[in-house]
Amino acid sequence: MTVRWTLAGVAALATALLAGLALGPTAIPLADVLRGGLTPLDEAVLWELRAPRVALGALVGGTLAVAGGAYQAVFRNPLADPYLLGAAAGAGLGATAAIVYAGSVPLPIAAFAGATAAVAGAYALGRSVGGRDTATLILAGVAMAAFLTALQTLLLQSDTDNVRAVYTWLLGRLSAAGWSDVLLVLPYSAASIAVVLAHRRVLDVLRVGDEEALALGVPVGRVRLLVVGAATLGTASAVAVSGLIGFVGIVVPHAVRLLAGSSYRAVLPLSVLFGAAFLVLADVAARTALAPAELPIGVVTACIGAPFFVVVLRSTRAAAT
Amino acid sequence: MIALDAVEVRLGARLAADGVSLEVPRGGWTTLIGPNGAGKSTLLRAVAGLVPHRGAIAVDGRDLRSVPPRRRALLLAFVPQAPLLPPEMPVGEYVLFGRTAHVGLLGRAGTADREAAAAAAERLDLAALAGRRLGELSGGERQRAVLARAIAQAAPVLLLDEPTAALDVGRQQEVLELVGELRAERGLTVLGAMHDLTLAGQYAERLALVDGGRLVAHGPPDEVLTEERIARHYRARVRVMRIASSPVVVPAR
Predict the structure, then answer these.
(1) pTM for this structure?
(2) Which of A55, A118, A183, B94 has the fewest beta carbons under 10 Å from its own?
């Protein structure tokens, strides 16, 4: 069963990657790519523009999807997504600051720092009010996000010249991607995915609740910190280069659950494959739908994601009753 | 052997366990009894390491506070009163969770683990249900699945919080007989909590009556279960009769 879905995931990703390479404002026939009969211009478009963009889409999509699945597992909350503990708001503030005070710190580094600092802050806040349960932690994340968003708004309001640049970033994009962005994300994404996948079995045990998992021998607090830390690192690196791309972290794991069952042993690895395929295809849609103009990819993922989410919910409900 | 020494548990402002000292000898079976809210579950949860406590709780002379979760799970298996059962999870997978401490954090269950889980499921008549989802089980079957998980854990101490609450009288007897057999076979030490006083007295070697967080009586069932005590601590009018030297508690009106 799982093997079948793994093969399906690999096939979906392969199809998405090929489509990503072939489709765009100038179509490059795949047959020509394989035969090697490309013009120098096509060659440049393919390897310097499309390939890094497709690779980045796959990395960011896989990372956000598995991070979403990890958050859903540790918080035992189907609505959790990688931005639950303030990563998006922190990255938003960091990016806004970088744009407004242009030049001092590169935008990806500011966004990355903002995202990790926000989640670390939410964690510390949750601990300081004495909450050992997940609800306290989520509420701390909500408080942190609200506070950072307020700061970001203040910053923007005092410097309206940059509103457009900030919004472009907030809506997410893979368009500026070159190989340097791919190399920037790769180590963090790989580490994040590896840590989360290594914990996939123990995350299944957490489904019986923190207390029982503890009684079964799982050091729950440590596992949660490690998995949230890894998922946050991946999310922050993805956000740093691609902006805020919503819905991938929530739609993909739910869709996978619908296909292959609710065990995280299957859900997490499959989320990597299907998340990568989903974002690459979303990016194809973003650059072909209104070509030569490009849609922000965050808008595309939300437009596909929201209705799809409703379908997933309906099927889950139908299966449950 | 389980030894509680002046155990105190604070839940918010309430002192849910107040200086409880109690010993369960190796291979013994002690059941905590007492009215609702007396502190039975709290004591069990403290032993299981789920609520912080003052005083000392030791198993075979080792203070549990210094034992990390995985080692603790190899010493103690806990059957909670209201277990959380993910409805879509297959029974076999759930029982296999009992092997978590044996498998380790990042390991995967091996043949020995699968065999131990299968044997535990067999023991509780669940072998045919291994592929079913937890949500499809009856109340009794669920309770047996939780027990099977605890047995698969293969710990020398079994903590049972109301293990028979959801069962009919036949299943209650089956489960308690099984616990008795395992105790005889493997030398399990059992600490439980139960509401049914007659049943508690029939199976446990010793009863420990708890009220208001304090241990108020401790000893063999026919010494602990007296009409006056039950009247005082449960505010109940009962008759205690003896059938085959075992006390039978009957409500009176």
Answers:
(1) 0.88
(2) A183
